[in-house]
Amino acid sequence: MAVLIEKKVEQNVADTRHELLEWHSRSGRLAVSSYNANFGSEVNFFTQQGGKSEHAPTRKANARITQLKWHPEDDILAVAWDNGDVVLRYVEDSNEFLLPVDDDPLDAIKCLVWNSTGSLICVADKRSLLK
Question: Record's InterPro entries (predicted)?
Answer without folding.
Answer: Beta-prop_IFT140_1st, WD40/YVTN_repeat-like_dom_sf
